[in-house]
Each structure stands twice: as structure tokens, then as C-alpha cells.
Amino acid sequence: MTVVVAFHCPDGTVIAADSMITPSMGISVGHHHGRKIEVLSGPQLFAFAGDQGQAARFKILAELQRAQISQLSHALEYGLGMSGGIIKQLASTGITGNAIGTNTILAFCHGSSHHCCMFEGQL
């Protein structure tokens, strides 16, 4: 089982994850030293559990959408936009419904506040 956790604190966000990368293709062998947490431009903190390919697509979307953060009136709009964006992006390649398993955490700053969004399963 793969694990990622986030703690939203008054002065920022702390994210932790194990390092086990497990393939989602029914193969039980995985890599024991994977990297699941990254600092993205924006600045944003990104972490994932579960499907590595879907998480990579989510990470790319977060990097492409980061410029929107400062233009939004409320931080929740960014999380909602990311949910809709990744659902649309995955659906464009036939990944829908139960096949969606992004399981990602995205922490970011909006204005002078820190925010942390968790995206699970089918979103």
C-alpha cells in the first residue's frame, strides 16, 4: 500500500509519503525508492499515491495552470479547476469513472494564505 499525507499548518503545509512505487497494471512488484513529492513552480507542493501515470499527468496540469492562481478570487476555484481539468484530460484518452485514481495532494499559496487540496480516486 502506498501512503501520502499532508498537514495544513498555520504557516504552511507539510507533506510526507512513502517511497514505494507500485505499478497499477496488476503487477505486484514495485520500486522501493521512488520519488512521490516534488516542489513545482508557482510555488506548489505536489505529492501522489496510486497510479503513477495519472499522477504525472496531474503534475503537468498543475505546472501549466499555476499562473491562474493569482488571478482567481478564491483559492477553492483552483482546486475545482484542477479537478475538472484532470477529469477532462484523462477522459480524452479513455480514462473515466472507476479507472480514475489520481490520489494527489497539491499545496499552493493564494494571496498571503497557504492552501492544501486533496484529490482522491474518481474525484
Mean pLDDT: 88
SSE run: EEEEHHEE
**Based on DSSP secondary structure assignment, what is the total number of beta strands?**
6
What is the helix tally? 2
Strand content: 25-35%
Q: Cα-atom Rg, whole angstroms?
A: 14 Å
Helix proportion range: 10-25%
Task: Point out poorly predicted stretches.
Answer: none
User: How would you write the strand order of the largest sheet?
Assistant: 3-4-5-6
- Main sheet record: 4 strands, antiparallel
Distance between the termini: 20 Å
Helix-strand makeup class: alpha+beta
Q: What is the molecular shape? A: globular
Structural features, described:
About 25% of the residues lie in helices and about 30% in strands. It has about 120 residues and is of the alpha+beta class. The chain has a domain at about 35-120. The strands form 2 sheets. A 4-stranded antiparallel β-sheet has the order 3-4-5-6, covered by helices on one side. The chain has a two-stranded antiparallel ribbon with strand order 1-2. Strand 3 and strand 4 form a beta hairpin. Helix 1 packs across helix 2 (about 75-90). The protein starts with a strand and ends with a strand.
Summarize this entry quickly:
24% of the residues lie in helices and 28% in strands.
Question: How is the secondary structure organized here?
Answer:
Layout: E1 4-9, E2 12-17, E3 37-40, E4 44-48, H1 52-65, H2 76-91, E5 104-110, E6 113-119
Helix pairs in contact: 1-2
